[in-house]
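job 3f2a | input accepted
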Amino acid sequence: MSINNSEKQDLLFMKSQESSMTKKSNQEPLIVLKAVGYRASSMRWLALALACLNCLGSYFCFDNPQSLQTIIIDKFDISSFQFNLLYSVYAFPNIILPFVGGIIIDRLGVRVGVALFSFILIIGQGVFTFGAATSSFNMMLVGRVIFGLGGECLNVAQSVVTTKWFMGKELALALGATLCVARLGSSLNSFFAPKIYYWANALYAPLLVGVILCIFSFLIGLGLNYLDKKADEQEGINGKEEENVEQVKLSDLKALNLLFYLLLFNGFFLYGGFYGLNNNLNDLMVQRFGFTPDTAGNYIPIIYICAAVFIPMIGAYIDHRGKRALLMIFACMLFVVDHLITALLPNSEPGQTNYAMVGILFGVGMFYASYAAIFWPCIPLVVPEKVQGTAFGLVFSSQNLMLTVIPLIVGGIHDATIDYKKGYFWTEMTLGGLALIGLFLTIWIYIEDLKTEKKLDKPCADDVKMSSKKSMARSFAKF
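job 3f2a | predicted structure (479 res):
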């Protein structure tokens, strides 16, 4: 017997042969094993590694401003409000851009999306770095706008690619892996960016490392595209999405129930409380608790390490046990306490460091891990399958609206109250207020769920539809 190996397909098969020594009528049947393509072989783990690394540069660069906040403010002599523009101008286009990115992915194919959005990140980070090198804060803002045009859309493309390669129970594992590597990029930024600055004594130096990482991620994306194309050729498909994402229509809003809208506003306030703190965390630790930008960067990754370690564990727990809203209540209570303690702690004396902030970082990390693991998978549980695209689109838009507005509010409050606790008392009280509103909404969600079908209280059904899993996969882009 000969085996035909073509360039387009990697076929593994076996055939049983009829015995020439027997003529029994119940002879053994012919055994044929199905063709095994890349996506059903160990090559899928290589694809997963490439998909994870494709967003490494994006996450490293996104929080460059946070890790260098005090340095940027001092260099350009700007206010906290102006500094927070670096986050707002990133988020503002993304109020609508995820819809546009989805159209590009669906019309032109996910591989075009991966290459295009990865390349936009290089341009955006390059302009941002050029602005730092030429001491032009306005140029840095332009760079952040360009970077924002690619960042969120690349996250969507990454989740689509991951969903193509992993189905069933492995999907959650794959998505957890992409999240862990994403948070690795954030941790590397918080830890290394201040050190690179002090080593080179130049603001553009750590930003240039971000450019290099974006180029690396772009090349990784090309490798992922090649592998994905070969897998599509094996399966005889053209590489575009087999299913069209439904367009958002106003009539779809009628199918979205109260529980969904409670989750929508819940995410707005709680993620607002998280990012409002996270975006200013390095400067807060420097100004109030005696850290240097370098030493603060050593501890801030605690938040991301908690996310990387505990999100898969918490996700597995709620899949088997349920109790989502109840666990969210405990997470929100912890978050409110974190903000209150941060606001009420006394400023450190000159030359002293208050390491109580390290415990707060762990608490914030546990909130973030718990909330992220619970919140996003709740969306497909409470809305009909046909409008899940609309539901996620609304959540993405509200999140980016929050990322546009909250940093400006925090910056304005900081500048107006800078004479008291370096401006971070009333900012923390405000963010704690957002978290408290989120807590009340979470309690309302818990009560509303018990009054209806208890979808959030129950464990996941074993027969979750694949389309719902694809919708949840896209939501991981927001983690």
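job 3f2a | The chain has two domains: 1-245, 246-466.
job 3f2a | closed
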